[in-house]
Write a structure and sequence with these properties.
The structure is a single chain. The protein is of the alpha/beta class. It has two domains: 112 residues, Alpha-Beta Complex (Aspartate Aminotransferase, domain 1); 261 residues, Aspartate Aminotransferase, domain 2 (3-Layer(aba) Sandwich). It is 35% helix and 14% strand. It is built from 14 helices and 15 strands. The chain has a seven-stranded mixed beta sheet, with helices on both faces. Strands 11-12-15-14 form a four-stranded antiparallel beta sheet, with helices on one face. Strands 1-13 form a two-stranded parallel ribbon. Helix 4 packs antiparallel against helix 12. The longest helix has 37 residues. The protein is globular.
Length: 469
């Protein structure tokens, strides 16, 4: 990439423009005890040719999913993406466009948003969808803030432990200074117990946030949980895997109030953590409390069909402190990818895709636990993901051995759940073949005879309510 060099003369001119005499004076605002008091010890400067060659050599050290068979999950999945998704999303009128502040000049984008919203409402069974949010974590947080506003309750939010830990971290950051108590319910056997929710909910509870399927891949008893929440006047917010809705009941059909999701699985590749797609849909009664934009259909003065931004006046750049949310943009390009992807699959294609994930996950769970070293951590039904427990408690070494054999075998859970330090999460999408699953099982079974170096200290505590299948 080109860059501009600041000469000493340029620097002096800029310093004079802001009214300081030197760089030392500029950085005097930094407390002295925080300033670096040694040389940076940087290598000698390179020419552009040398630097480009150096950066290329560093880039070649990256290992991508094309070099290993991917069983990673936890919110980001290796699904097949039809070539048409890249072809359409790669058109210049789409990938160079930004949020339409002058909507009348952006009819193509507005129509794409409208089609996206239509597909999301059909997928979730809800009344209305916005034109997308940043990603799953902020979508879940915005849904909780919506519920607090709509109910007038800001005292308590109840969250299932099976909600993605990074979603819960984001929510905690948003609520840290709002005086809202976040109560986290434990996941016994991978899911929350309805009786625990009954005990946790009170008259100041704004909402209950549940993920279904949850972070462990387990299916929650959402219909019973919705009943409990509504009996106490709280809203029910559910985070879903969009692919699972090919076989699972839609949230609108079990009376959820707000639905959120990470849309990466809908036509967006795994790419170092983002950008991804935040999905949100809700009941019509909540439409004016939704963050972001909503594209609508209308007619122009000649009676021709056209599209507009129906609702955007609650946004920060327009209403400032009176805004519903500080979100004032969306992931339009990723929403377009999801629109193309869902259009190509159709209802039948999505169902077949979901069934493939379901069947292959079950086959993988049986294959990986056959040798006896690994066992299922939970007995609950799962979709696309499951948690396995290593009998020897050497998860890091086991995953390293799998990586050396060409597999991203799973996501270690100890970083978020200390009592699951001997467990890892395995995801199986439609791309994984029987041969790949069998090969991974053979590699992990082969580790049975390998020397195991256990971590010093006590063996990780096991979740009391968990059972091995």
């Amino acid at each position: 990439m080109p860059f501009l060099l600041n000469t000493p003369e340029d620097q002096q001119s800029m310093l004079e423009a802001i009214g300081v005499a030197s760089l030392d004076e500029l950085f005097a605002m930094v407390p002295a005890d925080l300033r670096l008091r040694r040389d940076l010890n940087l290598p000698a400067a390179m020419t552009e040719l040398e630097l480009t060659s150096h950066m290329d050599s560093l880039a070649k050290k990256n290992t991508h999913c094309g070099q290993r068979v991917c069983f990673l999950g936890g919110g980001c999945y290796d699904h097949f993406i039809p070539a048409a998704v890249d072809a359409i999303a790669g058109r210049s009128e789409y990938y160079t466009s930004y949020t339409p502040y002058q909507a009348e000049a952006s009819q193509g984008n507005l129509q794409a948003f409208f089609e996206y919203q239509t597909l999301i409402t059909r997928l979730t069974g809800m009344d209305v969808s916005n034109a997308s949010l940043y990603e799953g974590a902020t979508a879940a947080t915005e849904a909780v803030l919506m519920a607090c506003s709509a109910t007038g309750r800001e005292g308590r939010v109840v969250v299932a432990q099976g909600v993605h830990p990074e979603y819960r971290q984001t929510l905690a950051s948003y609520l840290a200074h709002l005086g809202t108590e976040v109560v986290t319910l434990p996941a016994a056997d991978g899911v929350i117990v309805p009786e625990d929710l009954i005990a946790a909910i009170n008259d100041q509870t704004a909402c209950v946030l549940v993920q279904h399927p949850n972070f462990f891949g387990c299916l929650e008893d959402v219909e019973r949980l919705v009943e409990i929440a509504h009996e106490r006047g709280a809203m029910f917010v559910v985070a879903v895997d969009p692919i699972s809705l090919g076989v699972l009941k839609r949230p609108g059909d079990y009376n959820a109030d707000i639905v959120v999701a990470e849309g990466q699985s809908l036509g967006t590749p795994m790419q170092y953590g983002g950008p991804y797609l935040g999905i949100m849909a809700c009941r019509e009664a909540l439409v004016r409390r939704m963050p972001g934009r909503i594209a609508g259909e209308t007619v122009d003065r000649r009676g021709k069909r056209c599209w507009v931004l129906t609702l955007q006046t609650r946004e920060q750049h327009i209403r400032r402190e009176k805004a519903t949310s500080n979100i004032c943009t969306n992931q339009g390009l990723l929403a377009l990818r999801a629109t193309v992807y869902l259009s190509l699959l159709g209802p039948q294609g999505l169902r077949e895709l979901s069934e493939l994930c379901l069947q292959k996950t079950r086959y993988a769970a049986e294959a990986l636990t056959r040798s006896g070293r690994l066992s299922l951590a939970f007995s609950r039904p799962t979709f696309k993901e499951f948690v396995v427990r290593d009998r020897d408690g050497a998860v890091d070494q086991l995953l390293a051995q799998a990586a050396a054999a060409g597999f991203f075998a799973g996501v270690p859970l100890g970083q978020w759940y200390p009592d699951l330090a001997d467990c890892f999460l395995v995801a199986v999408t439609e791309k994984r073949t029987k041969q790949e699953i069998d090969a991974l099982a053979a590699v992990l079974a082969g580790a049975e005879n390998s020397p195991v170096k256990k971590t010093a200290g006590a063996e990780p505590a096991r979740r009391k309510a968990a059972t091995s299948a």
